[in-house]
Amino acid sequence: MQDRYNVREAEARWQKTWEERKTFNVTEDAGKKKFYALAMFPYPSGHLHMGHVRNYSLSDVVARFKRAQGYNVLNPMGWDAFGLPAENAALEKSVPPAQWTHENIAVMKNQLKLMGLAIDWSREVTTCVPEYYKHEQKFFLDFLKAGLAYQKESMVNWDPVDNCVLANEQVEDGRGWRSGALVERRKLTQWFLKITAFADDLLEGLKQLEGWPEKVRLMQENWIGKSRGLKFHFDITDGGELEIFTTRPDTIFGASFVAISPDHPLAAQLAAKDKGVADFIAECHHSGTSEVALETAEKKGFDTGLQVKHPFIPHKKLRVFIANFVLMDYGTGAIFGCPAHDQRDLDFAGKYGLEVIPVIIPEGENPETFGIDTAAYAGPGSLYNSDFLNGLSVENAKAEVIRRFEALGKGEGTTLYRLRDWGISRQRYWGCPIPVIHCPKCGIVPVPEKDLPVTLPAEVDFAKPGNPIANHPTWKKTSCPACGAAAERETDTFDTFFESSWYQFRYTDPHNTAKGFDKDKVGYWAPIDQYIGGVEHAVMHLLYARFFTKALKKCGYLDFDEPFTALFTQGMVTHETYKDEQGKWLYPTEIEKAGDGWVRKSDQKPVSVGRIEKMSKSKKNTVDPVEIMAAYGADAIRLFVLSDSPPERDLEWSEAGIDGAWKYINRLWRLAALAKFDGKGGDADGMRRKIHRTIHDMTQDLDRFHFNKAVARLRELSNALEDFSAAGGAGPVLKEGIETLVRLMAPLMPHLAEEIWTQLGHQTLIAETPWPEAEAALLINDTVTMAIQVNGKLRATVTLPKDLDQKSAEKAALDNTHIQKALEGKPPRKVIVVPNRIINVVV
Asked: Mapped to the 3 state alphabet, what secondary structure does 232-255 carry?
């Protein structure tokens, strides 16, 4: 073997070898156990970043490890290729979205290949091509037929300058992110998927997902938000009724106001007569439509002048406000406020001078002194100040209030969900066209299956405000498939979560032109055995993918309910931040060390070092993984991201860390290159025990995603082998140890493992070599440490051969100097030996 490891030459050669041999291409094999490893596919921004490197390093270790264990492993890759950035590029750079996207894919694919990933590239999917999205158009038509897709009016964020709908994240301080115009909340007809039809199934399914992190399951449970509450009517003093929904009927005696949504029908009636009401509603409509936007906005209200009668307190009346924080699409769009026990209500009450009446007292508190200051009390306790509810627990009080309203015929207990149907309409160009036609005679008409895919128009004007598809002079003009009359195509496109909700199934049959996937093929590979990605996708993507799976099953495409058996969410990659004297962000490559501080390379001016934060372009604390791989190689960057911290935690990038990984790679190379297999000394038995203990423990580590522990065990084994080699250790044992070390490192450092494996004289690829198995006999510890007690008190410990006979164990205990001292010359009355655990001397 050469003395130096030529990383660039070796990594390029092995990547070429794997590609030419199609080492990682797979097909269905009924005689082989399968394993489907999948990392969330990337958006083709054109640049690989360190988050990608960490994500795909983790999934690659899993895929290679399972492959070595004998599984038929599917490990595919594709591109989540629709989205707004491509439209922005078209506007800013005059590049068609398709061209921009495909050029970026080509760049990123080459960058990913530099990592040496064990990917079956023959299964690559790209979601923006008609060969992919024609199948999801068919799914949509099936959903429409099954009653799972429908149109309704919905509130949206409307930019009056760009004349388009904005996503919640595109609203910044109430203004459009691009135009700067004040955003309006408007009602538009939108397409929805009926995810609420599966609300209970989605909740119940979480119980079976034992391979998911508990925090992700809890996030989904909270998002679905099943709650038992009361729907009832307040009598309006001027006549009529106002329907309310509450999850806290127990606090009815603490009610001090009623609030309705700005979009409530009653608000609209009042606005028609009162300009003040109309102006307030218009102001509310300049905020975002999301629940988060409304929760974080300043709480504002408008006193309508209306009052309602309290149902249980004679002569008490509650003022009715229009409030900007009440959602029309949850419950009835009207609530009662109990400031003492809800922080939002307390903030509102403080602003508008409303009374605060505590009705739940914590255990141990004195009713005479307990009160509410700036923090509402939302914990458990007993009811007081509440007439017939006094003394009841919160849950019993809820039940009693529901019972009384039902007896009065003015309300009923009901179950509601926080989950809303999935709005899939986007007034954007770069997305999948929704395959329906609007006919003035027939209404909504599905595009016939034979006419799929409905493709995007090639020539569009992005400079003109509004939806580029709707603005196209001819694309939307068509004829009705049912009656032949002149009609128009739907100009909305799908939310891009639509594509990412089923891509995992397309990988199982990516070249099928007749349908999205063959049922037998998807049945062989799916569900996915291990899914890996960021926790930021815990709710939207993962919830939509779960819904999509259930919907596809209902439509006959699948025979299972859940897409992902196990889920792992990795931490972020972080880095220090740097600023110049003017407070402008600097890239790590722009600075250098100078004495005890840092300076800018260009002018040697001081640089301030800021917090360690998630790598981001905006703060310039990024590191280019392609440059790192050019300098150190792919195995070094893989080793660093795998070894520096547990994969579920954040990883701080450091030059010292990557340097350390590179040095260790070269140590491994030298260990193999300089090893002499003709020695006869050393503790051969101890070395073999160390080898097989490492096999056993590292197998468990990889199964449990303890990748940093696995690296630590590799280091321990390589250290032991270095010492064994230096001591002239027995040649056969040294060779067994080095070959085992190479097989163990293969999932983590595949290029180095292939290179050493070949240099050791093997003709087969390490990628096609089975995972080593530990010999059970070498895992047995031949000694045990036993406690020795005198009259039940611990006096000493002794290491003895395992399963030592009782007589010998007694002798060892009585010969111990600490025991002899404790006995003070007295003879023992008896000696009790619990084999391999404890010896008790009784005097």
From this structure: EEEEECCCCEEEEEECCHHHHHHC
Rg of the chain over all Cα atoms, to the nearest angstrom? 34
For residue 89, give Cα distances in angstroms to 80, 92, 202: 17, 5, 38
Q: Which residues contact 54 (CB under 8 A, 6 or more apart)?
A: 570, 573, 641, 647, 651
Closest to 104 in 3D by CA, of 130, 82, 135: 82
d(CA 64, CA 56): 12
> Burial of 390 by CB count in 10 Å (0-12 exposed, 13-18 middle, 19+ buried)?
middle
HSE on the CB side for 753, CA within 13 Å? Answer: 25
H/E run at residue 65? helix 50-68
Q: For 376, list phi and psi in degrees, rounded to 5.
A: -70, 150
Cα 46 from Cα 39, distance rounded (Å): 18
What is residue 675's predicted lDDT score, i.e. its pLDDT?
A: 83
Candidate ranges 47-61, 736-750, 768-782; pick with highest mean pLDDT: 736-750
Strands 597-600 and 606-614, how do they pair? antiparallel
Closest CA to 88 of 46, 42, 40, 129: 46
Q: Residue 82: CB partners within 8 Å, gap ≥ 6? A: 127, 128, 430, 431, 432, 493, 494, 496, 499
Q: Which two tokens stand for residue 687?
A: 């070395």
Collapsed DSSP state (helix, strand, coil) of residue 60: helix
What is the distance between the alpha carbons of residues 442 and 484, in angstroms, rounded to a whole number?
Answer: 10
Q: What is the mean pLDDT of residues 371-397?
A: 95
Q: How many CB atoms lie within 10 A of CB 175?
A: 17
99-132 residue pLDDT tens: 999 999 999 999 999 999 999 999 999 999 999 9
Coil, helix or strand at residue 334: strand
Output the average pLDDT for the chain.
92
Give residue-wise pLDDT tens across range 56-67: 999 999 999 999
